[in-house]
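Name: DUF4400 domain-containing protein
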Amino acid sequence: MAAVKDPREALAVWPIMASGRALYSLIMLVVVALIVQIGTARWFSPEPAERLGQLLADAQKRAADPVLARQAADVLYQPLGVWTRLDAVVRRQQSDGSLTPAQRVLHPWILAYLYAVQLIGTRLAALLACFELLLVLVLVAGIDGLVQRAIRVEEAGRESATKFNLAKAMRKVGLPLGCLLYVAAPFTVDPGWIMGPLMVVVVGSVWGQASWMRKYL
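Structure predicted for DUF4400 domain-containing protein:
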């Protein structure tokens, strides 16, 4: 017979697992966004670095908190640009042009990559700026959903596992997909057009999960 897990042990492990999943999701988000940004920039323009530079300038203008946007771009640029020594290649080209033949051929793509990294960091800052509002809305929706669940329990209302699972799927798919659509968008986009519907989906799914949770736990 399988041993029953101690709830205290599960509660202690949960923050570690949640942090690991969040880090994995962030890494995958950045990798996919980089591929999409560089690939589509080459598709739309013969000079991908120039196009990505224009998108970066526009994203910085639209940033609600320019300081946070700059810091987020620097945090992402440090490991992906400086530690990989790709930033040094661009600086060497700008200073004296002493590049190897391979570096000279790859220089336009390296420059496009560095612009894409800064663009993704700037857009991630926009997502981070909305986190506090999203957290408050999720908390309110969760409390209201639990109230609706309590009313349903008292009135012996029927359960619906289908609605609960649908709300859960909306949250698990909607949040990462909405973030990816904004971060990887290969064109100028206002954060409000993405974050507004994204918040509606996340808040609605949290309310649905809380209100349609099983009556008897």
